[in-house]
Design a protein that fits this description.
Blueprint lengths: L1 H24 L10 H5 L14 E3 L3 E4 L2 E2 H4 L4 H10 L5 H13 L5 H8 L7 H11 L5 H8 L6 H28 L13 H9 L8 H11 L8 H11 L4 H12 L7 H16 L5 H13 L17 H13 L4 H19 L16 H7 L8 H22 L12 H9 L2
Antiparallel strand pairs: 1-2, 2-3
The chain binds carboxymethyldethia coenzyme *A.
Carboxymethyldethia coenzyme *A binds next to loops.
Protein name: citrate synthase (unknown stereospecificity)
Family: Belongs to the citrate synthase family.
GO molecular function, one term: citrate synthase activity
Length: 428
C-alpha cells in the first residue's frame, strides 16, 4: 500500500505545515468564546476540534474535501475512504492498490464467530457489532508496535494499517451478525473479487442482481461515511483514540454512541415509527391522518425520528440522495410513500412546535434510509444502524489516522462545578 501511505504522508505534512504557519502568525488568536449557554447545551456550536476529513455546512450539508453530496454520491466506499484520508479521489492504480489490500485482509477470525454465536439471540445487532470489533483488539498492529517502542512519527502508519485491517472485515462481520440473528446462522463466503458493497450484499444472503439492492448498499456505505468531528460517534472515537487506545477500541466506542436513538439508531426508530403508522392507519394513510399522528406523537412527549439536526438547517442532502434512489427504483413502495407524506407535514409542524424551539425542522438522513432497505426485504429494522455503522467506521479511521499524524494530544476538556460557576459568574 505504498501509494496510499505516500499520499496520506503528504497530506499530514501539508496539514501540519498549514497549522504551524497559522499558529506562528496568530499565536494569540481567539477562535470563539464559550458562553454559559454552550455549557448548558451540549457544547453546541463551540468550535473546539480540528477535523479535515469532512465538513458540514448548515445550509449545504456534508462536504468531503470540497466535494458535496451530489458530487460523490455515485462513488464507491473504497473511493470515499481514500478521499477521506488523503483529501483526493484515487487514480485507477491507487484504487486498485487499496481494493486489493482490503480483499487480502477480509477474513474475520474464527474466535469472533464463536463469541458472537454464544450471545443470546435477544441481543441488539449494534451490541454484537461493537463487541465483534472489540474482540479483534488483540489483532492491533499499532498496539504491538507501541509495546515494542514505536516512534511518535510512525503512529499514523500503524493506525492506518489497523484501519485497513478493520475496514476490510466489516462487510463480513456485519453480514455474519445478520445471518446469526435473523437467518439460519450460516456464514456466507464471498467472491474474492467483489468490492465492499458487493461483498456485503452477497454475505447478507441477498440476490446481488435484485434490481438495485447492491447499488443501494453502495450508496448506504458512501452517504454515512463521515459527518465532521463533533457528532457523538466520531467525537467518542476521537477521544478514545487520543489516549492511544487503538482503532479497534476507538471504533467500538464510537459505534456505542452511534447506537443511541438521537444519533444513528434514529434510522431504526424511523422504520418503527412508519410501521406503527401503517399498523394504525393502514398502508396508505392520508396526509391529514399522518399530520394528526405526528401531533399525537409530540403531545406524548416523543421526538419525531429522522427530523432535526445539531448542525444542518436545511433538508439533509443525504436524504435527497436517497429520495432520488427511491424515486428511481421503488416509487410505489408504501414505505417511501409514507416518508414523502411525513416530509409534507413534519417540517411545518416542527416550525411552530414548542414556540419555534426546534432549531431544524427538516429531515436528516435517517428519515428515509431504512424505508429503502425495507423495500428490498431487509425487514429487521434493528439491523439498520449496523449498516450506518459499517460506513461511519470509514470516517473514524480516517479522522484518527490524520489526528495521530498531526500528533494531536490526548483530549481533555476541563469541567467545572456549580460552585465554580457561581463564583466565576458573580465575580464578573
Ligand atoms: N422532534 C421533536 N422535538 C424535537 C425534534 C424532533 N425531531 N428535534 C428537536 N426537537 C426538540 C428537542 O428535543 C429540544 O427540546 P427540549 O429543549 O425540550 O429538550 C428542542 O427541540 C431544541 O433542540 P434542537 O436545538 O432543535 O436540537 P438538538 O441540536 O438539541 O438535537 C437532534 C438534535 C438530532 C438530537 C434532535 O433534532 C432530535 O432529537 N431529532 C430526532 C432524532 C434524530 O433524528 N436523530 C438523528 C440525527 C442524525 C444522526 O445523528 O444520525
Amino acid at each position: 500500500m505504498e501509494k496510499l501511505l505516500a499520499k496520506v504522508d503528504r497530506r499530514i505534512k501539508k496539514l501540519g505545515d498549514e497549522l504551524q504557519q497559522l499558529y506562528t502568525e496568530h499565536p494569540d488568536a481567539t477562535i470563539g468564546e464559550i458562553t454559559f449557554q454552550n455549557l448548558l447545551s451540549g457544547m453546541r456550536g463551540m468550535k473546539s476540534l480540528i477535523c479535515n476529513t469532512s465538513f458540514v455546512d448548515p445550509y449545504r450539508g456534508l462536504f468531503i474535501s470540497g466535494l458535496e453530496v451530489p458530487d460523490f454520491e455515485h462513488k464507491t466506499p473504497e473511493e470515499i475512504f481514500f478521499l477521506l484520508v488523503t483529501g483526493t479521489l484515487p487514480s485507477k492504480s491507487e484504487l486498485e492498490e487499496l481494493s486489493s489490500e482490503l480483499k487480502k485482509r477480509s477474513k474475520v477470525p474464527e474466535y469472533v464467530w464463536k463469541m458472537l454465536r454464544s450471545l443470546p439471540k435477544t441481543i441488539h445487532p449494534m451490541t454484537m457489532f461493537s463487541l465483534g470489533i472489540l474482540a479483534m483488539e488483540g489483532e492491533s498492529v499499532f498496539k504491538k508496535k507501541y509495546e515494542e517502542g514505536l516512534h511518535k512519527d510512525e503512529y499514523w502508519k500503524y493506525t492506518l494499517e489497523d484501519s485497513l485491517n478493520l475496514i476490510a472485515k466489516l462487510p463480513s462481520l456485519a453480514a455474519g451478525i445478520y445471518r446469526i440473528l435473523f437467518m439460519n446462522g450460516d456464514i456466507i463466503d464471498s467472491d474474492q473479487q467483489l468490492d465492499l458493497a458487493g461483498n456485503l450484499t452477497q454475505r447478507l444472503g441477498f440476490n446481488r442482481h435484485n434490481q438495485g439492492f447492491e447499488e443501494l448498499n453502495r450508496l448506504y456505505l458512501v452517504l454515512h461515511c463521515d459527518h465532521e468531528g463533533g457528532n457523538v460517534s466520531a467525537f467518542t472515537s476521537r477521544v478514545v483514540n487520543s489516549a492511544l487506545s487503538n482503532i479497534y477500541y476507538a471504533a467500538s466506542a464510537g459505534l456505542n454512541g452511534l447506537a443511541g436513538p438521537l444519533h444513528g439508531l434514529a434510522n431504526q426508530e424511523c422504520l418503527h415509527f412508519i410501521t406503527n403508522i401503517h399498523d394504525t392507519l393502514g398502508n396508505k394513510p392520508s396526509v391529514d391522518e399522518i399530520r394528526k399522528y405526528v401531533m399525537k406523537t409530540l403531545d406524548d412527549g416523543k421526538v419525531i425520528p429522522g427530523y432535526g439536526h445539531a448542525v444542518l438547517r436545511v433538508t439533509d442532502p443525504r436524504f435527497t440522495a436517497f429520495m432520488k434512489f427511491g424515486d428511481k427504483h421503488c416509487p410505489e413502495s408504501p414505505y417511501l410513500q409514507t416518508v414523502k407524506k411525513l416530509y409534507e407535514v413534519v417540517p411545518d409542524i416542527l416550525k411552530t412546535y414548542k414556540g419555534g424551539k426546534v432549531s431544524n425542522p427538516w429531515p436528516n438522513v435517517d428519515a428515509i434510509s431504512g424505508s429503502l432497505l425495507y423495500h428490498y426485504g431487509m425487514t429487521h429494522y434493528e439491523y439498520y444502524t449496523v449498516m450506518f455503522g459499517i460506513s461511519r467506521v470509514l470516517g473514524f479511521c480516517a479522522q484518527n489516522t490524520i489526528a495521530r499524524g498531526l500528533h494531536q494530544p490526548i483530549i481533555r476538556p476541563k469541567s467545572v462545578t456549580n460552585s465554580w460557576l457561581k463564583e466565576h459568574l458573580e465575580s464578573q
